[in-house]
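Colleagues,

For the teaching module next term, I've prepared a clean inverse folding example: a structure given as tokens, and then the sequence designed for it. I'd like students to try predicting residues themselves before seeing the answer, so please don't circulate the second half yet.
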């Protein structure tokens, strides 16, 4: 059973989600949460960069302490807790509802994405459990931990830390490749977490070359992450430049307005990129699971027939 990755997986995946406005509306809430999360990271990166360049760590710490002892700290903590819980719970649920929507649209050519969301809410526990167990193995999570630990140790042990994280990075790639189909097995086959992991590993090993091709394609489709990284890297320095070097109040205000406008345009572009790429990635993995699961079933049936 020969399967062509381009014609049997990638092209059908694109045709399935092409011009699907339902997904665009569906991704609005997860997009809002992601933008808030990214904006918080941006503010943090800006403050950190500014304090390092201007050597104002003591003043920054004092400002933070003053805020902690202010009247607004209780409201801030409550809002932060609500946001963190929403971010941890809503994003996985929407992601897994998208799997159900794509599967139903593929089989029936008609699907309601909000119905898919409500139907699969009862699967919240295995969804939440799976994401909690394996979210730290995502490459972006490994990179974040690497940067955080590197910053914590202030580059004193960069060689040792880098060596350790290179091996963690390689292990994460292996885990991600082997467990690529787990979420589809849990949702579409009602399997438990470790059952789905075992079956996903079998599918991946049976189609290792093609699975690696799809996984490599995901790197290319993750251009959104690269855009985020560039903005987070450059934007803080631009803001600091405006505050530090432009002394005229009018020009400073004008420059900040222009920067905010550019950032808003980037956010709108990011929204478009997010729903297109995320839905395309999910659709590609779904078709890969569908085709190669059929191949696994065919091989297992042949083995059963031979043992009779």
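(Answer key — instructors only)
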């Amino acid at each position: 059973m020969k399967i062509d990755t381009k014609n049997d997986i990638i092209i059908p995946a694109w045709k399935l989600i092409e011009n699907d406005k339902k997904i665009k509306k569906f991704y609005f809430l997860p997009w809002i949460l992601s933008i808030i999360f990214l904006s918080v990271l941006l503010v943090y990166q800006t403050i950190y960069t500014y304090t390092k360049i201007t050597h104002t760590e003591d003043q920054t710490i004092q400002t933070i302490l003053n805020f902690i002892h202010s009247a607004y700290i209780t409201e801030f903590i409550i809002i932060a807790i609500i946001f963190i819980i929403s971010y941890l719970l809503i994003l996985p649920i929407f992601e897994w509802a998208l799997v159900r929507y794509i599967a139903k649209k593929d089989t029936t050519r008609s699907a309601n994405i909000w119905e898919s969301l409500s139907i699969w809410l009862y699967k919240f526990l295995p969804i939440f459990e799976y994401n909690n167990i394996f979210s730290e193995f995502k490459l972006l999570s490994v990179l974040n931990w690497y940067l955080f630990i590197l910053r914590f140790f202030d580059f004193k042990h960069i060689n040792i830390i880098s060596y350790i994280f290179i091996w963690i990075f390689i292990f994460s790639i292996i885990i991600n490749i082997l467990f690529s189909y787990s979420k589809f097995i849990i949702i579409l086959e009602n399997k438990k977490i470790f059952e789905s992991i075992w079956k996903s590993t079998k599918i991946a090993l049976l189609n290792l070359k093609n699975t690696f091709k799809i996984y490599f394609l995901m790197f290319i489709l993750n251009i959104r992450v690269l855009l985020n990284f560039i903005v987070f890297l450059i934007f803080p320095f631009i803001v600091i430049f405006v505050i530090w070097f432009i002394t005229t109040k009018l020009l400073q205000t004008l420059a900040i307005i222009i920067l905010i406008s550019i950032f808003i345009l980037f956010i709108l572009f990011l929204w478009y990129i997010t729903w297109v790429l995320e839905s395309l990635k999910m659709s590609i993995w779904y078709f890969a699971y569908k085709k190669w699961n059929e191949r696994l079933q065919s091989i297992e049936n042949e083995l059963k027939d031979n043992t009779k």
